[in-house]
Amino acid sequence: MAGTGSSMLYSFLLFIATLSLQEFIGNYQETCGVRTGWGAVILAEVFALVAAGTVHRVSITTCFLFSAALLYEVNKLSGVMISRSESRGKRY
């Protein structure tokens, strides 16, 4: 049986992998004109929390906290990138 620390790491990596896979699917959907939203993020979080829950309740908490921190940073970075691209478009 895996230790609590390694299982938390595996569930966090599962969250990132699931989110990346859904990002790939989301890019395909956007080329077709359909937008993806927070539903994909919530689905990836549920997968990761279920995987973490198979080991220990504390793993669920730590996986959720680290995933929330990662989502906050990615969302903040995305906002910065969008504002930069909009400001470049307004100059010309």
Provide structural commentary.
The chain is mostly helical. It has 3 helices and no strands. Helix 2 runs antiparallel to helix 3. The longest helix has 35 residues.
Task: Give the helices and strands, then pairings.
Elements: H1 4-31, H2 38-53, H3 57-91
Helix pairs in contact: 1-2, 1-3, 2-3
Distinctive features:
Dolichyl-diphosphooligosaccharide--protein glycosyltransferase subunit KCP2, KRTCAP2, mainly alpha, 92 residues, membrane, elongated, 3 helices, transmembrane helix, transmembrane
Largest sheet: none
| Beta-strand residue percentage | under 5%
**What is the averaged pLDDT score?**
77
Radius of gyration from the CA trace? 16 Å
Number of helices: 3
Low-confidence stretches: none
Approximate shape: elongated
| Separation of the first and last Cα atoms | 59 Å
Structural class assignment = mainly alpha
> How do the SSEs run, as a string of H and E?
HHH
Oligomer: single chain
Query: How many strand units?
Result: 0
Proportion of residues in helical segments: over 70%
Task: Kindly summarize this structure in a few lines.
By secondary structure, the protein is an all-alpha fold. The chain is 86% helix and 0% strand. It is elongated.
